[in-house]
Write a structure and sequence with these properties.
Low-confidence stretches: 59-67
Mean pLDDT: 83
Number of strands: 11
Shape: rod-shaped
Distance between the termini: 14 Å
Strand order of the largest sheet: 2-1-11-10-7-8
Number of helices: 2
């Protein structure tokens, strides 16, 4: 996923490149020890290559492909229209199912069209660092997932986590939840 840089970030990048170019020119024009001059040129060229290769980001801050930060889960109807949404940003664990007198869930699907197929504790979303995972909680009708950009869905194996990404579709029985 390509992101647009703000004007101030572009300005800072240009300033860094200018300083690197100025350092190289200074080292080449001002006569002093030859090995030191070549070391300065090589170091500046190396730093420029790293900045260009990483796009100005620190290597540790680069997000993995498809791991855009997940902020909400959206319930979709049969026509793909948004019915309801739940914000999960900042949460660690989110339980999906139906609230009962014995307990409440974070994403309550008890008023959905296919509520009779949904278990009280159907699935759970867990965040580890910046990554989200989904697990089927031994539900009666199962949990499925369709990865973003794919046309095929797969059924989750009970208690085996599956990584989630923005754009993935979760199937709780016949109910569709879009990960955003």
């Amino acid at each position: 996923m390509k992101t647009e840089k703000s004007g101030s970030i572009v300005l800072i990048d240009l300033l860094i490149y200018g300083i690197l170019a100025g350092t190289v020119l200074y080292a080449l024009i001002r006569p002093f020890h030859y090995i030191l001059q070549m070391f300065i040129v090589a170091a500046a060229a190396g730093m420029a290559c790293v900045l260009i290769w990483t796009g100005g980001r620190r290597p540790g801050s680069m997000a993995r492909k498809g791991s855009a930060e997940i902020a909400k889960i959206v319930l979709l109807d049969d026509d793909g229209e948004r019915v309801k949404e739940w914000f999960v940003k900042g949460e660690i664990s989110v339980l999906i199912g139906k609230s009962t007198s014995q307990g409440e869930v974070d994403i309550d699907l008890s008023d959905c069209e296919y509520a009779s197929l949904i278990s009280p504790e159907h699935a759970v979303l867990n965040r580890v660092g910046s990554e989200w995972f989904i697990e089927d909680a031994d539900s009666n009708s199962g949990t499925g997932i369709r990865k973003a950009g794919r046309s095929d869905a797969s059924r989750l194996v009970v208690e085996e986590p599956e990584r989630l990404g923005a754009g993935d579709m979760i199937f709780i029985a016949n109910t569709r939840l879009l990960v955003k």
